[in-house]
Amino acid sequence: MCELERYAAVASSVARPTLASMSVQREEEVALVALQRERPQSMTWAQLSAEVLLEGSAIKVWENLREPSLLPDAGSESTWSQAVDEVAQWRSSDLQFVSILDDGYPEQLRSVREAPAILFYRGDLRQVDPGMSVVGSRKASQRGIEIAGVAAGLLVDRGLSVIAGLAEGIDTAAHLAALERGGRTVAVIGTGITKYYPEKNQALQNRISREGLVVSQFRPDASPTKQSFPMRNAVMSGYGMGTIIVEAGERSGTRIQARNAVEHGRPVILTDTVVEQTSWGRALVGRPDVHVVSGADELGEVIDRIRDRKFEIENTIQRLLRMPVA
After folding, report:
1. Does the global pTM surpass 0.90?
2. For each successive 10 residues of the chain (326 residues), what is the average pLDDT?
3. How far apart are alpha carbons 217 and 96 in whole angstroms?
4. What sign has the CA pseudo-torsion 11, 13, 14, 18?
5. Helix or strand or coil: residue 71?
6. DSSP structural state of residue 221
7. Cβ contact 189:222 at 8 Å
């Protein structure tokens, strides 16, 4: 056997570390984690998720993006082994998570480019979960708190989920109003699923996990960072059918979600206060599917139109799918 053949034999004999009795689904999960750890070709999380959806398999993407070599790639094998250990640890800790390839992944979120490859959750995860985000300033005024409560109530009365980011101010008011009205609320958090931020909302986060849903795109023990909250906003926008911006300042992070929603083709509802007090709010006026409201009645009417249009589109798609092929 020549030297080249010997190297090839060694490379082909290196077995990829696996979990005991690993199923195809479990191996796909490991491949997703390995991709996120290694980020081949410096790809972003969003790019990796898109590539996985395109291929229909994280394993294929992992194999496609690795440079071909006759010698075993110790770094890649190490990354895979670490991913195996990490998934095993999550499973043994009873952490709940779903991958972008799983049927249970929220279908509305899957349609945006920022869809996380892996979504951790506590509570009642639903593939179909019609709802809208209610967001705004952390340092909310009393009027803003009241409007957030009204908005949450209007959504609950229509059987829609109230989506917010569990931040202080408007988010907290929306979550609480939904729970007090007996409705469903979804918290999209900017930390790992085992963390609490702000700490004062620990009891609220636990309550939502029991009565609604808490979701995170970050590793379970991840602390908040400057980048995590804009990423959270993109996921929150993608999860819902629209975004209601109650109150916000000129430099509020809420403007990021407004921009995300426009890019996602999701309706944006602005209160007249946001338009009056922010240049970015005024810049949005006149854009397709951007609505300005000045009271509860107007807000309810716009919510109804958005909801009815979405359901009509979905029903039309279902009818077309059931039509026999000529």
Report:
1. no
2. 32 39 80 90 87 92 72 64 91 90 94 93 97 96 97 98 97 98 98 96 98 97 93 96 95 91 95 96 95 97 94 78 66
3. 12
4. positive
5. coil
6. T
7. no
